[in-house]
Each structure stands twice: as structure tokens, then as C-alpha cells.
Write a structure and sequence with these properties.
By secondary structure, this protein is α/β, with parallel strands linked by helices. It is 40% helix and 14% strand. The chain folds into 2 domains: 4-228, Amidase signature (AS) domain (Amidase signature (AS) enzymes, Alpha-Beta Complex); 245-439, Amidase signature (AS) enzymes (Alpha-Beta Complex), CATH 3.90.1300.
């Protein structure tokens, strides 16, 4: 390839094995294009080059630690890396000491030879689906820089889509991997709740936080996910039943959706049907119950972030994004019984939902019901900000509550060149199934 940054993970891995390119050469190609700013809050060129040199030495000795060896990655700025500050999009947290060691997820990737380019910008404390950050700047959407990138893994999404990282890590509490993936035209995987260690990461919701890959292909998401989950190296193979049963909710997912999103979504459904799979439309009352539970008891993110950051809000409130502060304080004063009842309801529903619909292979929905809006409009209008944020998060947050994996894969392009994402949600701990079903429409629409 003319530009070394055009390689996907799988392509780069093959090129390394064939000795067509070297890890140091590729890493330098990335670093030459990077600077701290709206996409990367900080860079780690010294560590990146050291990791690349180690990978190169291993290849020269015929040693392979797997497909991520020598692959340049971006890490969302809520993941600890040794000797670097983890800011989590926060001006206050940026003042704390550097981390003493890698978070387990970073250590796992370092152990398989990955290269860490730096830490990507994000919504403060990961508490928004839009991607705006008044402290470090908002990266423009990779497809139109005047539009929001999606959040909270904004920098990660833009970095991957703009070829400023081969792939990236994000976190997903209510959609923060899938939303920027959908908006920037890449693949994102929300992993099963509790399946990837979160130690050494800055929390938002201890109940719903997950970590996941953001990549340029479904195969790359598979490769990065397996390394994140400390699973053995295994090539991506689509092993599915000849006829899938795919469930499409008739309620909630298309409410107030943009017409171009509806059109792309229906084309994706028709494509699956054209492959011979059954697409069943059915009202799923449980999906409507989830926002009702949040209205009744408060949200996990608000309850848990208040417990985590109330002291910081009281002592440094003027240094915190007021929109993030408002969401943290939204359910302040609620009794502890509300939080416990919400927890009981979530545990019960995440079990009963997948049991009730076990005859289906996946639930399909648009990742986001609307297209990305103008950054400037949302910066200037609080009411529009909160209305848009709720609509952007609505579809994705349903499946955080239901605890299973969900893949966002591009399924259409609008007349103005924006991307529409298809979400493929499956039962807990069936990431391979979600990715395989998503791969059927990849680059087909």
C-alpha cells in the first residue's frame, strides 16, 4: 500500500510476516501524522517506538505473539498506562499523578506485542453519547468535521476512521463504543458485561461499564476482542446456521428516527432476507420497560458516578463540564432502595429477556436513530444538547442494560456521505456470534 496507515490489523499482520514492512516503519508513519489535540489528548512516542522495536526483534527471530504484534493502537484516555496520566476527559483528573502500572487490559495488549500510540480524547468521565469536551476540545467527525463524532469514545472513533490509529480501545456504558463507530463509519463491539477486566480504568458506572474494540473491519474487531479477552489466537471464520432467525423490535428503536437511517436499516433487513434468513418483526415490551425503569429509579450511571465523584463536584465544580455535572446530579437525593431495586430489575431482566427470545439468533436495530448533528448547534443550546444526547443513546443503552454483546457495523451511506450503523445484539458471552452475523452485511450495502 502507498500509505502504511491504510493497513488493517489483519493486513498488517500478514505484511509483517511476509517482511513487506516493519513495525518501526509503520509506527513512525503513524507518529509523523499525530500531535496532541482534539483527537489525541496525549501521545507516547517513546513507548510506541520501544514496543515497535521489540516487535521487530521478535519477527526477526521468527517469534510471533499473535496478530497484534507490532500493530499501532490508540487507547481511550480512561485506561491507565504506566508513567502516564489518565485524565478521562477531565481537567481535574488531568492533575493527578501518573499511573504506576498498566491497567490489566493494557498489560494484556502489551504482552501480545501491540504498540501504544497515545490516549484519545473523550467526553468528560465518559458521560455523554455526543463526544463534546470543553476542556480538551471536540474532534470533528471523520466524515464531516463540522459534525459531532459521537461519544464518549470520540477520539478513538475519529482516530480509527481517519487512519490515525490502526485500531483503538473504547469503553461502552450506554453506547460509547458503538455510537462513535456508527457515526464515523467503522466497526465497534460492545462486549458482554463483566467479560473484560476494568481494573485500572476510570469508572462511570461500575455496573454497566465495558471495554471494547473499535476497528476498520469485523475481522479486526474479532482479533482485537480475542486479545482483550485473553483468548487464544484463532482466525475469524463465519460459522452460522444456514437459516438465521433475526428479531427486529417493532417498538422504540425507530421512534423519531431520521429517514435516511430508516432507509439504510430496512435495506439491511432486506439483504439478510435475500440471503435466505428469517427476519421477524415483533414488539418487545421489555425494551420499553428499560427507560421506564430509569425514569422510576434513576440510572446506574447517575447513581454510581455520584458516589464516585460527588466530592470532586463539591470541591472543583467550576472545573467540570456543567452538562456532565448535571447528569451526575440528576438523581441526587434518591433513596438507596431505588438503586437496589434498579439493580434487582436489571439482573432479572437480563436473564429473562434472553431466555424469552432464545429461539432467535440476534436482535437487529439501527445503532443510532439519527445522523450526527452540528457541533456548533449543540455547543450553543443546552436543551438541544440533552434532547439529542437522549436520542443518540436510546437504542444502544437498551443492550447495556441487557448485558450481552452488540456489534455496530456500517450498513449504509447517506447522500451526503455519512454512515449509518446496524447494531447486532446477542445473548451474553456470544461475541463471536454477534460479529459473525454483522460480517454478513459488511461492505455489501
Amino acid at each position: 500500500m502507498s500509505d502504511l496507515r491504510d493497513f488493517t490489523i489483519s493486513e498488517l499482520s500478514r505484511a509483517y510476516r511476509n517482511k513487506d514492512v516493519s513495525p518501526v516503519e509503520v509506527t513512525r508513519a503513524y507518529l509523523d501524522k499525530l500531535e496532541p489535540g482534539k483527537i489525541y489528548r496525549s501521545l507516547s512516542p517513546e513507548r510506541a517506538l520501544n514496543q515497535a522495536k521489540e516487535a521487530e526483534k521478535r519477527f526477526q527471530k521468527g517469534i510471533s505473539l499473535g496478530p497484534l504484534q507490532g500493530v499501532p493502537l490508540a487507547l481511550k484516555d480512561l485506561i491507565d498506562t504506566e508513567a502516564e496520566v489518565t485524565a478521562a476527559g477531565s481537567k481535574v483528573l488531568a492533575e493527578k499523578p501518573a499511573a504506576k502500572e498498566d491497567a490489566p487490559i493494557a498489560a494484556r495488549l502489551d504482552a501480545v506485542g501491540a504498540v501504544f500510540l497515545g490516549k484519545t480524547t473523550m467526553t468528560e468521565l465518559a458521560f455523554s453519547g455526543l463526544g463534546l469536551n470543553p476542556h480538551f476540545g471536540t474532534p470533528g467527525n471523520a466524515l464531516d468535521e463540522t459534525l459531532i463524532p459521537g461519544g464518549s469514545s470520540s477520539g478513538s472513533g475519529v482516530a480509527v476512521a481517519s487512519h490515525l490509529a490502526c485500531a483503538a480501545l473504547g469503553s461502552d456504558t450506554g453506547g460509547s463504543v458503538r455510537i462513535p463507530s456508527s457515526f464515523n463509519g467503522i466497526v465497534g463491539l460492545k462486549t458482554s458485561n463483566g467479560s473484560i477486566p476494568k481494573d485500572g480504568t476510570t469508572p462511570l458506572s461500575t455496573t454497566l461499564d465495558t471495554l471494547g474494540p473499535m476497528t476498520r473491519s469485523v475481522e479486526d474487531a474479532w482479533l482485537l476482542w480475542r486479545a482483550m479477552a485473553a483468548k487464544s489466537v484463532k482466525p475469524f471464520e463465519v460459522e452460522l446456521a444456514k437459516k438465521l432467525r433475526l428479531l427486529v423490535p417493532e417498538n422504540i428503536i425507530l421512534d423519531r428516527a431520521d429517514e435516511e437511517v430508516k432507509t439504510a436499516f430496512h435495506r439491511a433487513l432486506e439483504f439478510y432476507e435475500g440471503l435466505g434468513h428469517d427476519v421477524i418483526h415483533k414488539s418487545l415490551p421489555e425494551l420499553s420497560e428499560i427507560p421506564a425503569l430509569y425514569n422510576q429509579y434513576g440510572s446506574f450511571a447517575s447513581h454510581e458516578s455520584l458516589a464516585l465523584y460527588e466530592d470532586m463536584l463539591e470541591s472543583r465544580g467550576d472545573d467540570i463540564d456543567p452538562r456532565v455535572a448535571k447528569r451526575i446530579l440528576e438523581f441526587r437525593g434518591r433513596p438507596s432502595t431505588d438503586y437496589l431495586r434498579l439493580s434487582f430489575a436489571q439482573q432479572a431482566m437480563s436473564r429473562s429477556f434472553w431466555e424469552a427470545y432464545r429461539s432467535f439468533d440476534a436482535v437487529l436495530a439501527p445503532t443510532v436513530a439519527i445522523l450526527p448533528r452540528k457541533i456548533r448547534d449543540l455547543e450553543q443550546n443546552d436543551q438541544l444538547y440533552f434532547e439529542t444526547n437522549g436520542l443518540v443513546l436510546r437504542n444502544t443503552m437498551l443492550f447495556n442494560f441487557l448485558a450481552g454483546p452488540a456489534t455496530s457495523v456500517p450498513c449504509g451511506t447517506t447522500a451526503t456521505g455519512l454512515s449509518v450503523g446496524l447494531m447486532v445484539a446477542t445473548a451474553p458471552h456470544t461475541e463471536a456470534h454477534s460479529l459473525a452475523i454483522a460480517s454478513l452485511v459488511e461492505n455489501k450495502l
